[in-house]
Write a structure and sequence with these properties.
Blueprint lengths: L3 H37 L13 H25 L3 H31 L11 H32 L9 H26 L2
Helix pairs in contact: 1-4, 1-5, 2-3, 2-5, 3-4, 4-5
């Protein structure tokens, strides 16, 4: 017969494995997209002198900060410091939304430079940029929704030093999103 502690540990392990499999699937999707970008680089209409919008540099810093706040929120709840956990969870949400803002600001900068993904003046380079950024934003929206659920559960006092699985899973996903954007940013910055 399984004790309740063993059941809790087995459930936590199952949730972590599911999240890891989901993150591997997402990684494979982005690997496929970046591979398609590599193949498309040989096209004659590829923009060779394209520069990433400056807002994407800002969003890089913001998402790294976001990962730190989520990490420290997990550390704080492990110490039963609910007040600090609350501040850090809200800070993570604010930084996540700030990241989204700067992503769209980057698109505005592209438009201001007459760089469009489709149409008569459209470019395949910009189309790939849009696909990669929007795919990342779609996954980030899942992170924001999960973060809202974590904040709700935190206010319902479901987390403490012995029960913090939701925050731990949220932190794993936020770190994944962080590394994914760093990869995409560096790929887009250096691969021209």
């Amino acid at each position: 017969m399984m004790t309740s502690e063993e059941h809790k540990q087995r459930t936590a392990r199952s949730y972590k494995l599911l999240l890891i499999f989901a993150m591997i699937s997402m990684t494979m999707m982005f690997a496929g997209l970046t591979s398609a970008l590599v193949v498309s680089k040989s096209r004659p209409d590829w923009l060779k002198d394209f520069q990433l919008p400056s807002s994407f540099f800002v969003s890089l810093v913001v998402i790294i900060l976001c990962s730190f706040t989520m990490h420290f929120a997990k550390s704080a709840i492990k110490k039963d410091n609910r007040k600090v956990t609350t501040y850090l969870l809200w800070a993570t949400l604010a930084l996540g939304l700030t990241f989204v803002f700067f992503q769209f600001e980057g698109f505005t900068q592209l438009f201001e430079n007459h760089l469009y993904p489709v149409g008569g003046t459209g470019s395949i380079t910009i189309s790939f940029l849009y696909v990669l950024v929007y795919a990342h934003l779609a996954h980030l929206s899942g992170g924001i929704i999960s973060l809202l659920i974590i904040i709700y559960n935190h206010f319902k006092q479901k987390y403490n030093s012995s029960q913090f699985l939701g925050i731990e899973l949220g932190a794993m996903y936020w770190h994944f999103l962080d590394f994914l954007w760093i990869y995409l940013f560096l790929f887009l910055y250096f691969f021209k």
